[in-house]
Amino acid sequence: MTDYEKIRYEVAGTGVATITLDDPETRNSLSPDLLGELIDSLRAARGDEAVRVVVLASSHEKVFSSGANLGGFGADAPTVHKHFASERFLELFKLIGELGKPTIVAANGHVLAGSLGIALACDLIVAKEGAGFGTPEINVGLFPFMIMALIYRNVPRKRTNEMLLLGDRLTAEEAREAGIVNKVVPAGEFDAAVDEWATKLASKSPLIMRLGKDAMWRQMDMPLAEALDYLRSQLTIELSTEDAVEGVTAFFEKREPTWKGR
């Protein structure tokens, strides 16, 4: 466990790293300090071979994160300084996409504003019943520019328009129907549901998972013909690995595979 002020970072023996947003007094607002620690912990997870999957969680009972710190937007600071401050969001979104390891958001409470962008940058979202999802920025004279591209890449256009322009909050089930959330579970089943998926992901070949994750990120905005050529090359690389051979062999021998990471 690494010491931070705004988050908690723990790695279990199962290969699951849990990053818990832990600034409940501000409802886990995305301050520069919290974002900096989140980026640092994700880098640590990326570089740790023992980590197979990353779970983002919250210590607040009702809120995953309230989004960016509004005080920073109203602060008496040069505009150029505010522009530079938003760079951490770009760094964070790219880091999650290029992590090479699967990510799960454990949405135990409301996921609002900038934190919705973080959640959508991740691979899977498990939501507790009662959690809400939304972009309320328009209601306070702002617009969610930093996360707009992520929303449009996950949510149908008209539904995204509704979220951005009206600023209303979606229920967890509405968010699932919109394509934001993968699974909605009752409070009593929430921790077990997150753990089940994390454990399952951690059991896969870390090498093949990294090849797959890197390909998911890189092909996303490629033209179709270019994407097909790129993915064909990744298939050839995959088939040259020992883990691919081990996985197929274990399947036919009806046993669990032993991954070698090469």
Kindly describe this structure.
The longest helix is centred in the first third of the chain and has 16 residues. The chain is built from 12 helices and 10 strands. The strands form 2 sheets. Strands 1-2-3-5-7-10 form a 6-stranded mixed sheet, sandwiched between helices. The chain has a 4-stranded mixed sheet with strand order 4-6-8-9. The protein is an alpha/beta fold and 262 residues long. The chain is 48% helix and 16% strand. Helix 10 packs antiparallel against helix 11. It is globular.
Uncertain runs are none
User: Helices and strands: which structural class?
Assistant: alpha/beta
Q: Give the termini distance in whole angstroms.
A: 28 Å
Mean of all residue-level pLDDT scores: 93
**Total strand count, please?**
10
Radius of gyration: 19 Å
Strand content: 15-25%
Report the major sheet: 6 strands, mixed
* Secondary structure: helix percent: 40-55%
Order of helices and strands: EEHEEHHHEEHEEHHEHEHHHH
Oligomer: single chain
Number of helices: 12
